[in-house]
């Protein structure tokens, strides 16, 4: 299978494992999240090793090593993005499988198993609907980013709390919101696959200062992220710059 088919296979397979585990009812809460992370990660790591043994891998649930830094191609994986939501029985969690080549997120798949859906970087699932008259900004359920709150005030937007980073990014891809602005810090596995899928759908993707997102770095920390409809990109970036001054 080609890289995109593999990404979809990986994301969908991990999603099925997670749904089956939750349905079994043998774990709950934090214990369910921990077991789900472990089982999904074991599947993903084994499948990447079997299908792309020469590629590098960076996964949230596997100890990192410097070996990936010498690789041009690196699979960047989050076996369960939104552990809290998964453990609570919610649907706003995701599985991320992204491929970075020479530091760029070139393709990916994001599974939303709670909605029986896998989105990939080969274009949007359907044409984007017209934007809402009041722009909708996706934010964390517990700690909305300061910049997102201030941008919403400046543009007359509405804040929409949602769970995982992948769920929020895919809500923009699906036309359920216009803007996902995050400044509270993430790791590469939190957004590599969502960024690839969003870019494939024709959305704007960048850091919140407008600079490009780069992957397979020595430090896996990525401080901020903007995924939005292109019509809003310039205004949002202007407002973020104003807030920072």
From TrEMBL:
Its EC number is 3.1.3.7. SUPFAM superfamilies: Carbohydrate phosphatase. The keyword Repeat does not apply. Pfam families: Inositol_P. The keyword Zinc-finger does not apply. Keywords: Hydrolase. InterPro entries: CysQ/Inositol_MonoPase, Inositol_monophosphatase-like. One of its GO terms (molecular function) is 3'(2'),5'-bisphosphate nucleotidase activity. Gene3D superfamilies: 3.40.190.80, Fructose-1,6-Bisphosphatase, subunit A, domain 1. This is 3'(2'),5'-bisphosphate nucleotidase CysQ. It comes from Novosphingobium pokkalii.
